[in-house]
Amino acid sequence: MRRWVLISVLLLCVAVVCGQRRYGYGGGGRGSRQAAPPQVDNLNWSVDPKFKDDVFTFVRIQYQSTWGWEKWRTDWPDSDQNFSFRLQQVTALKVNPNPVILELTDQEIFRYPWIYIVEPGRLLFSEEEVAALKKYLLGGGFLMVDDFWGVDEYENFYEQIKRVFPDREPQDIPFDHPIFNCIFPLKEKLPSKPQIPNIYLGIQSEWSHETWERPDAKTPEYKGIYDDKGRMMVIICHNTDLGDGWEREGESEYYFREFSEKQAYPLGINIVYYAMTH
């Protein structure tokens, strides 16, 4: 994992120039509007076989839920593939075109420095998963948690993550933190922390101006969990849905322009950059 991080630092150092010149993220008004994005079927690229392990891989975590269907599949596979493509497109980072699905107890997880959990509002860790996640994070790994809304869902995730780190409290991440500004300066473009709605609410927001899924989820929250040296190990993206911003980018020009291009992709890329360089 250390070799991968060193390579990532070198490659990502040029991401500011590449991303802003080639794609125009965070550009604001209609002058930066892009054409309709390509469909998933066309998102194919190759990596150098000599360095097939020195690439960023989107790793989605499969988990058990107290609900009857597999919430971990939400937005899959389009969000994973689209984000991988955009990361490859607008940065100098080499990215695996084939996202991966793993369980926390799979030893393969230690090959990858970044993992993603979606919709943890009814997530339930086993004791084995608690131990595996703690080992992974303290060993240098990074977890992004996304797309859960309201008080009840947060309380469920909080209970589960406290089983992993009973002595560590999630801390609010201020809007001037580098994770919001290290590649794409969101604070310069947005009035407050990003709240990315699902596509249906996003389209309606053009006239409703509402981007929250329920009354107790009006304020987007971003929290971090840190190790003893102050390294962020977990970012918790609550009352927001970056995954839909990635998955549904091609379905509405308005949604793409207002939420995918301006918020979901810039923040996602910032998170990856920050995770790989801090």
CATH superfamily: Domain of unknown function DUF4159
| Morphology call | globular
CATH class group = Alpha Beta
Helical coverage, percent range:
25-40%
- Please tell me the total number of domains: 1
Largest sheet: 5 strands, mixed
State the CATH architecture.
Answer: 3-Layer(aba) Sandwich
Structural class call reads alpha/beta
How many E strands?
Answer: 9
Give the averaged pLDDT, no decimals.
87
Unreliable spans = 2-41
Per DSSP, what share of the residues sits in E-state strands of 2 or more residues?
5-15%
Distance between the termini: 13 Å
Number of helices: 9
Strands ordered across the widest β-sheet: 4-6-9-8-7
CATH topology: Rossmann fold
Radius of gyration: 18 Å
Task: Spell out the helices and strands N to C.
Answer: HHEEHEEEHEHEHHEEHH
Write structural notes for this entry.
- The strands form three sheets. The protein has a five-stranded mixed beta sheet with strand order 4-6-9-8-7, sandwiched between helices.
- Helix content is 37%, strand content 13%.
- It has helices at residues 2-12, 15-22, 78-90, 127-138, 150-164, 186-189, 199-208, 242-247, 253-277; strands spanning 59-62, 64-65, 100-103, 114-118, 123-124, 142-146, 171-172, 221-226, 232-238.
- It is globular.
- The protein starts with a helix and ends with a helix.
- The chain has 278 residues and is α/β, with parallel strands linked by helices.
- It has a single domain (2-277), classed as Rossmann fold (3-Layer(aba) Sandwich).
- It contains nine helices and nine strands.
